[in-house]
Design goal:
Number of strands: 6
Largest sheet: 4 strands, antiparallel
Strand order of the largest sheet: 5-4-3-6
Distance between the termini: 32 Å
């Protein structure tokens, strides 16, 4: 699989605006639908693109996968598999390039997938029960992003 940005943008379809891509995001006060710039232009400085599946080969999430979502507030956001926390970023690491992500997490691209946008007025994210988000069992439930 090539996993290039053109493939992700083509898969997104004509009705998805990647410059205003709605997706769940987790932050220290909870989660809600946020707007990301998931365009090739916004993601290019980071070297990873919307819809890319990346494998973490280092650090705490070694041998797990994430999906790249897009850029918000100068950070590249990604959705870690199995966490049900929505998109997260790592501002404390100050990751600004492909080399930074490779050094910190050992990211390797494993292809590209279609990412379903969130409806801007959705009531709760996938995986959340009774409005609790992130789920109390999540390792990110007590983190500060």
């Amino acid at each position: 699989m090539s996993g290039g940005p053109e493939e992700a943008e083509a898969d997104a379809g004509a009705d998805v605006d990647l410059k205003n891509f709605h997706y769940w995001a987790w932050h220290h006060t909870g989660a809600d639908v946020q707007v990301f710039d998931a365009s090739e232009e916004a993601c290019k400085p980071f070297g990873f693109f919307h819809g890319q599946r990346v494998k973490h080969t280092k650090a705490a999430y070694k041998d797990t996968f994430s999906t790249v979502i897009g850029v918000k507030d100068g950070q590249l956001w990604y959705d870690p598999d199995g966490q049900d926390v929505g998109a997260v970023c790592t501002p404390a690491f100050n990751l600004k390039s492909k080399e930074d992500f490779e050094d910190a997490f050992g990211w390797e691209v494993y292809g590209t997938v279609y990412v379903e946008p969130a409806h801007p007025e959705a009531a709760s994210p996938r995986g959340a029960k009774d409005g609790a988000f992130p789920p109390p069992s999540s390792p990110l439930a007590n983190a500060q992003n």
